[in-house]
Amino acid sequence: MTAKIARYFAERRPVTPCLVVDLDVVEENFKNLRKALPDSAIYYAVKANPAPEILTLLARLGSSFDTASVAEIDMVLAAGATAERISYGNTIKKECDIAAAFARGVRLYAFDSEAELEKIARAAPGSEVFCRILTSGNGADWPLSRKFGCDVAMAKSLLLKAREMNVEPIGASFHVGSQQRDPKQWDEALAQTANLFRELEADGLTLRMVNLGGGFPAKYKKSVPTAKQYGIAITDALRRHFGNRIPETIIEPGRGMVGNAGVIQTEVVLISKKSENDERSWVFLDIGKFGGLAETMDEAIQYPLVVNGRQGTPKPVIIAGPTCDSADVLYEKADYRLPEDLAIGDKIEILATGAYTTTYSAVAFNGFEPLKAHYI
Ligand SMILES: *Cc1c(COP(=O)(O)O)cnc(C)c1O
């Protein structure tokens, strides 16, 4: 947690649960990614955290934006970025939404199927398109595989079809899975992409762009490599597979841009046991899966917790949210320990919660307010 966030909690004593994001950390993340991959354009994945404060900051720093809906496109435009800096990267779009994006000036679209390509050709004529290819998602704590992308053979035939339609096929994209802790995972995807480029070249279609996706991690409980290490691994892989014909590249960091910039403060509502001989206590917080911590699903993302002012021995606990839904348990299998003198009313800080929290919180499930957020 940064000194700025600690001071905010100490001085403002905001009502919990709430998220506080330090914009200086976002700026530092942007600069580190730019330094790690100086030849790649950065398209911030808006879904990770679409707060106007973040979009405005990134627009000012020169970022471009990966969006998934017309509402996200409008947020980016409102933050001061022009339409040339927007990619409509969702492969699942209504035709009327493509038309709305086109009317706003967006000229870069993703697809992974023939039907989607046809929609883009009709609703966004003349636009640039790229085809998303499937990856395994190995090594990622939050894989995005299966739902998105097509295999390389299909990508090849779709890109060739695109050439015959009223769009300009410019490249391919992939996403190696979110919270990808292994920088080497870009290698296999780039090997496939380079193959695709060579095969299409043989058919007279020259592609010029590779979208390297997101996947850059935030530091949770487990350690993660630095942005620099990702930069080195990706640059090596590009050289290995494309030789001296390295294409234009873009990256779409979401989690890696904002994850470590935020801290959620929560309050302990209840500590209890289900039986006298239970070894572990249940600790119920005022935030849970429906209040913004959806990524604790299957305990995939394991946020570090900090309790201030308690010196007791850490004891194993089960941690759960406040709603009347039995799915609202955060950590039961993962080894979480909290001080034995923890008391009802204590504050707990949940670190690295700047990404995929505010927008995952329900509007008012069980009457609980959506997660409040402060950007400082
Ligand atoms: C969600 C998403 C991203 C961001 O992924 P992170 O793992 O958060 O960096 C990037 N690109 C696309 C197409 C996405 O859907």
What is the fold named in CATH at topology level of the largest domain? Answer: TIM Barrel
SSE ordering: HEHEHEHEHEHEEHEEHEHEHEEEEEEEE
Distance between the termini: 13 Å
User: Could you say which small molecules are bound to this protein?
Assistant: pyridoxal-5'-phosphate
Provide the residue-averaged pLDDT. Answer: 97
Largest sheet: 9 strands, mixed
Number of strands: 19
Output the CATH homologous superfamily of the largest domain.
Answer: Alanine racemase
The name of the CATH architecture of the largest domain is: Alpha-Beta Barrel
Beta-strand content bin: 15-25%
Query: What's the overall geometry?
Result: elongated
Instruction: Give the oligomeric state of the chains in this entry, treating copies of one chain as homo and distinct chains as hetero.
Output: single chain
- Number of discrete helical segments: 10
User: Helicity, in percent?
Assistant: 25-40%
Low-confidence stretches: none
Number of domains: 2
